[in-house]
Amino acid sequence: MLYHLLYPLHTEISAFYVFRFITFRTIYAAITALVISFILGPWLIKTLTNLQLGQQIRKVGPESHFKKEGTPTMGGTLILFAIVLPTLLWTDLTNPYVWITLLVTVGYGAIGFLDDYRKIKFKNSEGLSARQKLAGQVVIAMLAVGLLYMVPGFRTTLAFPFFKNVLPDLGLFYLGFGMLVIIGSSNAVNLTDGLDGLAIGPTIIAAGAYLVFAYAAGHAKVAGYLQIPSISGAGELAVLCGAMIGAGLGFLWFNTYPAQVFMGDVGSLSLGGALGTIAVITKQEIVLTIVGGIFVMEALSVIFQVTSFRLLGRRIFRMAPIHHHFELKGWPEPKIIVRFWIVSIILALIGLSTLKLR
Predict the structure, then answer these.
(1) What's the pLDDT at 276?
(2) Is the peptide bond before 161 cis (omega within 30 degrees of 0)?
(3) Least confidently predicted of 56-60, 147-151, 192-196, 258-262
(4) Number of structural domains, the chain?
(5) Residue 35 binned pLDDT confidence (cut-offs 50, 70, 90)
(6) Cβ contacts of residue 187 below 8 Å, gap of 6+?
(7) Does 265 score more than 80 pLDDT?
């Protein structure tokens, strides 16, 4: 909005020329999101507390979590607002990639909102059934990938990290693959959201990495130099990533241990969906398994645990997702969180290194 209102005036007021630069708008999208979070955060926490919208804790979870029951949840609504508003203010609103990413972000947030609401209304930790949640995710992902497929110039090729000439074209099969990336990313972040600040930290780090990927893919000369797919218009997603970083940092202010508010599924599903969509658009889908390695590890720990128990009758971990395993081994919650953040930073750096190691 500001881009469309102020940039055209640069012929009259030269200072407005800065609105042309994605880097400038990315920085201020992050700052705007951070300010929104700081202003609205205390009000939201107070409102959620007054409405008694508290977290329901699984009785099969670690006993240390029982004391967290009643902590305000659905704080992801703050994250959503702090992402969407700055994005609308600072991006080029004629860019289809921005709208498609927002579609997934808000759509998955709505699914998470319904899930959180049912948990609170019926006072249990179940919410929507797995089938209901997955059905909603599939519909939104199908719509998003279908719209991407219709964007002129959108590529259905698959880029492999470390290999510059391996670019298989999946054609129509890319529709299914793209859906899998978006849905898988959303659910992986959702599984990671089990400790105070555990999910939002790696999300901020991953958003920072994809800010770089989006800017590079959208800049023809930079993409050519790095020998990565050049995606016209993808650079605007750097602004959205900036908003995600600002919103994440603002939320972390209130979510850090001991948390004043939890993001709930409204936050985790939407953030994961946004990351997956940006990965699809920037053609860095496989790199997401590296940058978001913490999310992958959490998801795989659940898959391995369930598979092992059903086939062999025994568990691999003391409890899944894997962060609970470390809890039951006696690791203090802050130690688990910070160490997972450290691993996330290392994995993000490895992911970014694929831009040159080809």
Answers:
(1) 98
(2) no
(3) 56-60
(4) 1
(5) very high
(6) 137, 269, 272, 299
(7) yes
Predicted pLDDT at 66: 52
In whole angstroms, give the CA distance from residue 248 to residue 79: 7
Is 340:189 a contact under the CB 8 Å cutoff? Answer: no
Q: Is the pLDDT of residue 54 over 80?
A: no
Closest CA to 272 of 306, 296, 301, 302: 296
358 assigned to some structural domain: no
CA proximity to 211, closest of 273, 267, 164, 279:
279
Decide if 330 is inside a domain: yes
Has residue 176 been placed in a domain?
yes
Do residues 189 and 271 touch, judged by C-beta distance below 8 A?
A: yes
What SS3 class is residue 163?
Answer: strand
- Report how far Cα 40 is from the mean position of its chain's Cα atoms: 21
Q: Decide: helix, strand or coil at residue 64.
A: helix
HSE value, Cβ hemisphere, 13 Å, CA-based, for 28:
14
Domain assignment of residue 51, yes or no? yes
Other beta carbons within 10 angstroms of residue 303's beta carbon come to: 11
Torsion (CA) 4, 150, 265, 83 in degrees, nearest 10: -10
- Count the residues in the chain: 358
User: Is the pLDDT confidence value at 224 over 80?
Assistant: yes
Q: How far apart are CA 85 and CA 32, in angstroms?
A: 9
How open is the CA angle 355-218-241, to the nearest 5 degrees? 85
Range of the domain at 182: 2-353
Which pLDDT does position 62 carry in this prediction?
Answer: 62
pTM over 0.90: yes
19 φ, ψ (degrees, to nearest 5): -70, -15
* pLDDT for residue 351 is more than 90: yes
